[in-house]
Amino acid sequence: MTSSANESTPFTNGSTRPDSPQAASPGDPSAHQASLRFLYDRINYEGAPSQGANYPFRLRRMRDLIRRLGLEAYLASDSSSSTPPPKPLVHIAGTKGKGSTASMVAAMLSAAGYRTGLYTSPHLTALEERFRIDSLPCRQVDLVQLVDRIRSVATAMDCDSELAPTFFELTTAIAVLHFHLQSCDAIVLETGLGGRLDSTNVFASSVTAITSIGLDHQHVLGNTIAEIASEKAGIMKPSVPVVSAVSRPEAVQTVHRKAAGMDLPLFQYGRDFDCDATPRPDWGSQFQYRGRTPPLRPNHQAPLALEGDHQANNAAVAVAIVDLLNAQGLPVSNDAVSRGLGNLTCEARIERFTLRQDVVAILDAAHNPDSIDALVQTLKPRLATRPITVVFATSRDKDAQTMLDWLSPLATHLILTRYVGNPRYREPSKLRAMVDESRIGKSGLESITVLEDPIEACEVGLAKATPGGAVVICGSFFLAAETRSWLQGKSKS
Question: When you count CB atoms within 10 A of the terminal residue's CB, does the N or C end of the chain come out lower?
């Protein structure tokens, strides 16, 4: 998929594209800037094609890119037969939860002693965050070398192909190349958008998973739950087991029908496995996993560092995935599961900061109605006694109305803003028009403020927060990226 269909995050501080140096060594900052420019120049935010347009050709181009890099062993077969990857590879799709689930799988595999590569998108502050090995982002010097290796291939393809390789295609190729060169024992890939036509879908997999199905990116994936489910179910491969946590009836029917048609072993949340979670007094929960169908482990209790019932559900999917890897000869012990889940933190995934006078700030990259709903349901009990100031910004292609309908009843003060480092923002004044004036004075909402600058919005939000109150910042990866360093500077921890 092109990066225009995904919340990719170049230059979240609002800076311009870096200039290309005449000559520089890999460790030279100018070489790093030139590498970023080479990739970012291939972004076209307004160029997202309609559903299905030119995509058979685009996936052929992605496969060609991988072959030219000498990574053809990682490619899935074009035939109906299964092609095992050269090393265990997990492929995860979903409307929400796929990034957290991917991070959990990688954390458990790393805890089990396997050198594990994790590819997720978008990043918050640095492109290198997309390419992690055992939780550590790719080094800048390594990224320069990777881009140097891929530049000549991409440039040759510019001449040979109808369309040049895109930003997301190149970053996906860089991820697998990096993990290959660094001799990773296992790889976890998160789709960028959808599944069937996503650039990550050219790779052979050991286990696939679909975390959820909801309405998002309809201009590319389709306008109904069934259509979107069909796109995400497109990551299924012949003979490869699939884990599903979809719950909407149309999505369940679509996913199960496709799995049955391919004669795949399918492990469904609520049928083959499930979980319970008991909130811990401080943060996170005590997680209880139950597998009902072999080879899933029958029971396991573990601490879960990430907050929210939705994260417990994601953890159950992640454990089911490692159980299937376990059955394929990649042992993951109960102890590794506990250490992986108990020590994992995810930036901007209901991330908590303690500010002055016991004010708690929550940063979350929730950017569609389903993820905002999960955020609200998590915060209601956790922040029940705290007056909440919500700072919100989002992108033009998002369902801002539904997100604001969910958030407004939670807020004592609502501050509407934008991000500055990307052109896709929705004007705060247009967000203001979506909030019913009659809400003020009802359900606890006392004020609505519109501010163009996101840091000023956070400063005002903190000023409005009474001692013991809370500030919740949400609505976009871009907003999270631009405000996280401000939160770190204000944090007492």
Answer: C
